[in-house]
């Protein structure tokens, strides 16, 4: 069934109008093609995420039940992670920022693509749920469920991290910039669905969480450190607070410029509050870097065989 699902998703990526930029930005595709990975619901790594992400991060079974589904053995469930790689055109144009006197802003085309991406991602999750339901199975989306929220405490994280779920499904590992470095690079968006359909697990090539990053694997690169205008990435790691502060500044400048085109989305914070926002991105740390559009450590897997 993995292959059928991938073919189904390729068709949606090719034909959906939601995967298109507005005409004044060329009208081209936002995402090139999907990649998918499958993890088993009983994989112990989901328990580990309660330590690495936060105690409120849910396992597939927990989010399944929180979405109104009955108790089942966790091994009956699979998570399907879907990777959305931005097109080469968007990646190329996004490497040139808008320069203001005191800061830089992402290229307009990227902010628009990043903003429209959420609608397409939600559509793809709904379509994937339909795909399984039409075959007689049940499926839910963690991100679209009421159990999904941003947890804002001293730190902030979500109850369902798409990056971590995709790592569990063998789709990539983290980079120094904390993005997921996949075979299609790190300049991607992600989504996932949980289902009781009998899918084939795509095993992780390594449980080492930073195996695909040149800095952690070889002590080289550091491109993302140089690219970040907020000094949010150092050899010690990624500073979420500094990054977020810069993102807020970007949004403050970018949203008024693009308001007539941008879509607004609601966000749950601490389970209660729904805030509306206009995501416009930043991600200089992903453009023009060695892991932008590929896994720079891919050759090590060839060496193993
Ligand atoms: S840019 Fe280089 S150091 Fe940064 S995450 Fe990518 S591979 Fe790692
Ligand atoms: S998203 Fe922007 S601020 Fe955050 S680490 Fe990347 S370049 Fe820096």
Describe this structure in words.
With 305 residues, the protein is of the alpha+beta class. The chain has one domain. The protein contains ten helices and 14 strands. The chain is globular. The site of one iron/sulfur cluster has 11 residues, from helix 9.
Chain-wise SSE layout:
Layout lengths: L1 H14 L19 E6 L4 H8 L7 H7 L11 E8 L2 H6 L4 E2 L4 E2 L2 H27 L4 E2 L9 E3 L3 E3 L3 H7 L3 E3 L5 E3 L5 E8 L18 H5 L4 H5 L5 E2 L2 E2 L1 H19 L6 E5 L3 E5 L21 H6 L1
Helix pairs in contact: 1-5
Bound molecules: iron/sulfur cluster (2 copies).
Structural class: alpha+beta
Main sheet strand line-up: 1-2-10-5
Small-molecule components bound: iron/sulfur cluster
Rg over alpha carbons: 19 Å
Number of helices: 10
Order of helices and strands: HEHHEHEEHEEEHEEEHHEEHEEH
> What can be said about the biggest beta sheet?
4 strands, antiparallel
Count of DSSP strands:
14
Query: Which quaternary structure do these chains form?
Result: single chain
From the N-terminal CA to the C-terminal CA, the straight-line distance is 27 Å
Mean pLDDT score:
95
Helix fraction by DSSP (H/I, runs of at least 4): 25-40%
The proportion of strand residues reads 15-25%
Q: How many structural domains are formed by the residues? A: 1
Residue stretches low in confidence (pLDDT < 50, at least 5 long) are none
- The shape, in one word, is globular
């Amino acid at each position: 069934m993995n292959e059928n699902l991938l073919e189904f998703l390729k068709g949606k990526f090719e034909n959906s109008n939601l995967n298109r930029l507005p005409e004044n930005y060329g009208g081209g595709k936002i995402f090139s093609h999907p990649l998918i990975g499958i993890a088993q619901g009983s994989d112990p790594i989901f328990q580990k995420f309660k330590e690495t992400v936060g105690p409120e991060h849910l396992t597939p079974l927990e989010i399944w039940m929180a979405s109104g589904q009955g108790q089942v053995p966790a091994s009956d469930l699979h998570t399907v992670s879907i990777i959305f790689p931005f097109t080469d055109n968007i990646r190329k144009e996004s490497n040139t920022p808008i320069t203001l006197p005191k800061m830089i802003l992402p290229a307009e085309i990227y902010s628009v693509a990043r903003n429209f991406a959420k609608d397409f991602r939600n559509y793809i999750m709904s379509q994937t749920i339909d795909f399984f339901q039409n075959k007689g199975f049940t499926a839910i989306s963690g991100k679209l469920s009421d159990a999904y929220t941003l947890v804002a405490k001293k730190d902030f994280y979500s109850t369902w991290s798409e990056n971590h779920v995709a790592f569990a499904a063998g789709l990539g590992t983290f980079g120094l910039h904390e993005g997921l470095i996949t075979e299609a690079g790190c300049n991607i968006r992600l989504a996932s669905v949980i289902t009781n359909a009998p899918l084939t697990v795509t095993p992780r090539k390594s449980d080492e969480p930073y195996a695909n990053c040149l800095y952690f694997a070889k002590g080289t690169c550091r491109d993302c450190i140089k690219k970040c205008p907020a000094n949010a990435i150092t050899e010690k790691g990624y500073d979420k607070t500094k990054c977020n502060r810069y993102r807020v500044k970007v949004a403050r400048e970018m949203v008024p410029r693009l308001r007539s085109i941008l879509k607004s989305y609601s966000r749950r914070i601490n389970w209660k509050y729904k805030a509306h926002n206009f995501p416009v991105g930043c991600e200089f740390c992903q453009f023009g870097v060695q892991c932008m559009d590929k896994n720079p450590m891919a050759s090590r897997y060839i060496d193993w065989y």
